[in-house]
Description:
- This protein has twelve helices and 38 strands.
- By secondary structure, it is of the alpha/beta class.
- It folds into three domains: 35-120, Immunoglobulin-like (Sandwich); 125-224 and 573-674, Golgi alpha-mannosidase II (Immunoglobulin-like, Sandwich), CATH 2.60.40; 231-564, TIM Barrel (Alpha-Beta Barrel).
- The strands form six sheets. The protein has a 14-stranded mixed β-sheet. It has an eight-stranded parallel beta barrel with strand order 21-22-25-26-27-28-29-30, surrounded by four helices.
- Helix 10 (482-498) links the parallel strand 29 (463-468) and strand 30 (502-505).
- Helix 5 (366-373) runs parallel beside helix 7, helix 9 (438-455) runs parallel beside helix 10 (482-498) and helix 10 runs parallel beside helix 11 (556-564).
- The longest helix is centred in the first third of the chain and has 22 residues, at 2-23.
- The chain is globular and about 110 Å long.
Amino acid sequence: MRNLRQGAALCIAIGMSLFITACGSGGSAPPPPTTYTLTVNSTNPASGVTITAAPADNNGKASGSTSFTLTYNAGTMLALATSATSGGNTFVSWSGGCTSTTVTCNVTMNGNTTVTANYAVPPSTYTLTVNSTDPASGVSIGVSPADINSATNGITSFTRTYNSGTSVTLTAPATSGSNTFSSWTGCTTASTVTCDVTMSAAATVTANYYVPGASTSVTVNQSSLGPAVTDQILGMNLAVWYDVMTNRTGIVDAFQAAGIKAVRWPGGSTSDVYHWANNSYCSSYASPNSTFSTFVNDIVNPGGFDLALTADYGTDTACTGPGDPTEAAAWVAEAKTLGVTVSHMTVGNEEYGSWETDNHTPSHDATTYANAVAGTNGYYQLIKNANASTLVGVDINPGNSPAWDPIVLANAPYDFVEYHYYPEAPGSESDSFLVNSAAQDLTAGINTIKAELTTAGKPNTPIYVGEIGGAYSDPGKQSWSITQGLYAGQVLGEMMNDGVSRLTWWIGFGNCNTNDRGNQSASLYGWQDFGAYNVFSDGPSDTDCPGAGPIGTMSPTARAFQLFSNVAVTGEHVLTASVTGDTADVVAYAATHSGGTALVLFNRNETTAEAVEVTLSGQSSSSGVTVITYDKAIYDQTDSATPVWAAPSTTNLGAQSLPLSLTLTPWSMNVIIIR
């Protein structure tokens, strides 16, 4: 046994010796523990959020301000904690290494890990104002959902406050007292007594009622067709000084949204000093981004717009002599190579006026002008040689001195005549005149032109209103007010009735007033403190029109074109709309509409709603009625810290018996489609 124990001891000793040799100073150290990095981020805000960690990391760090990192051994379990709010924003959730919706996040460090504490910006709140007409108060309106103060239904007039983006449904009673519901205005969408509003801005909606047996009636005679309707009255001017290349998307999108079909180029008096081939003026400025090819390729062709040009009558390319007809002809030919036909080319711009450039001798002379248009080498024939499809027109100035029209119309060849109309002088604008008389005065001018053409032996010559606006210079706040919108809408109705072949408003873009912003008299209605010829916003880069909104924002005048695009449809015909009762305030226009009838009704009263009854001859019911309204109340929404420039409201009334009773809100234009 002793010998066995000695052998065992020897083996143990040898084993211990081997162990000591392997683990002693002559061997390798064990590997250090694996570590991982924890990255801690935040959103809304992206930085500056204080977050704590337990336990502290390998460096003793137990908190940080986003974004920051911590280092832990593999397998470490830790808890992160953040605050419920940060800078007014509310905690929503963790994402990444954990998905908790509480302020605590538990993480196990099995690898490099990123976690993010997500916060949400509190929603903006907007006020919804709910009104009624006939009666102006006391109507109980259903409201869903409740607002941020838990308020629901109300009695007009009342307000509710909602988070941005909330969809609100309002329901009006079919009757209020002895009055009957007519329509909603100001809604995002409406159908009979229901109004839906999406709260993307402050909004005002109105439930309109009418008194049965309205004293004002509108009767449409459907049995007799009037002049053919053309969409070419939905036109805008554009000019070479405005950068069409940079702004092409804004221009085309805005024009198409408003239903614009026709454009005129290169811009008023500029035409008589402008040379298209090298995009230059004899004086003044042409944008290098607005060459003719750029205009055609970026605006005309993409938008599908009909194109009219004004030929330079005033100057030759050297700017020392009179205009050259060969330059005009080459321009028409160039258009063909670019894939567009110039539908109209007018010789010169307002060349009867001393304010225009004219290097002819004598200048601004009717006989000289007529002779320049006529002859084998004149404007008319050379333009026709370039493109026989291009209509060639002449300037007219009906009923004015010195006599221009009788000489030009009798001696020059032409396919159409071009007329310009600005009914107001700067500084003497009148809302009453513009809303109640100016459009009808335009018809008087058109009738004078028709008489002159009859005298000249050309009674059916097309009339093109090439420029039209309010004040002829230095426009003030009236130019972006509901008042000019009402004028523009009536102009379109008058021109449709008059059979005018084409109309282009002065101007679509690029002409905000820089001369102290025009007439800002308190006698003119409007909240804005600027004036502009352009009826679409040039965008915030144009500081002369503050608050006009993003590029392409529609003024009330542009809204008039948008409404009328539902009526001025090529292939339809004018119908006679007669008003009895309040003929001072109610104006009506009508046309056929895809087998039905389109009616445009204006209430020219600033403060009082108008109940009307609409009768269509030979029709006792409709399968569907749609009402589109733009009015003073919608325009007034613009008067806010951030201008709204709200859109027209659309109400679908569904099937209706005829006559149809409606309430026209104060200072409103209303398109009624009756199927």
